[in-house]
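Dear H.,

Thanks for agreeing to be a second pair of eyes. The structure we're designing against is below in token form, covering all 151 positions.
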């Protein structure tokens, strides 16, 4: 799987994230402070990683900033992106299952190495729900994106 990763700071957990994704066999595209010469501002690098997903050059993305909030907000401004800020495995599993989230947002401050592994395990093993109500909700979010593009 192709995964874009962004971080506004070159923190150990961000580097561990890239290493762990590669260890799991994913092709990683780096943005922000993780790539030499790239703009590290959270809004800029999170948007870049999210655009990779929206444009189909990456299957998913992981966006990081100190709290994860700014990265999540910026990513969610890109039509077609459903970013979820996850601080634990249960939230990550639910985001993939019920929300068909395609961008994982992480806090550089809160995410330890063991928690990162748990979040990634949950994120990559969960499948989007086929329950009609869940599918309808995700479709509704898609219509909100479409309406934003027209405005």
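And this is the sequence the design step returned. I haven't edited it by hand at all.
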């Amino acid at each position: 799987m192709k995964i874009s990763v962004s971080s506004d700071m070159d923190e150990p957990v961000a580097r561990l994230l890239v290493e762990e994704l590669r260890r799991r066999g994913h092709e990683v595209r780096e943005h922000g402070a993780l790539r030499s010469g790239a703009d590290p501002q959270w809004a800029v690098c999170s948007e870049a990683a999210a655009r990779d997903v929206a444009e189909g050059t990456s299957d998913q993305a992981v966006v990081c900033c100190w709290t994860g909030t700014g990265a999540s907000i910026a990513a969610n401004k890109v039509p077609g992106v459903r970013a979820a800020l996850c601080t634990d495995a249960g939230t990550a599993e639910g985001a993939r299952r019920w929300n068909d989230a395609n961008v994982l947002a992480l806090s550089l401050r809160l995410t330890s190495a063991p928690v990162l592994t748990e979040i990634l395990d949950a994120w990559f093993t969960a499948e989007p729900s086929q329950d009609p109500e869940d599918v309808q909700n995700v479709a509704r979010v898609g219509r909100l994106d479409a309406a934003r593009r027209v405005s």
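Two observations from my side: The first strand starts at residue 2 and ends at 7. The chain has a mean pLDDT of 96.

Warmly,
E.
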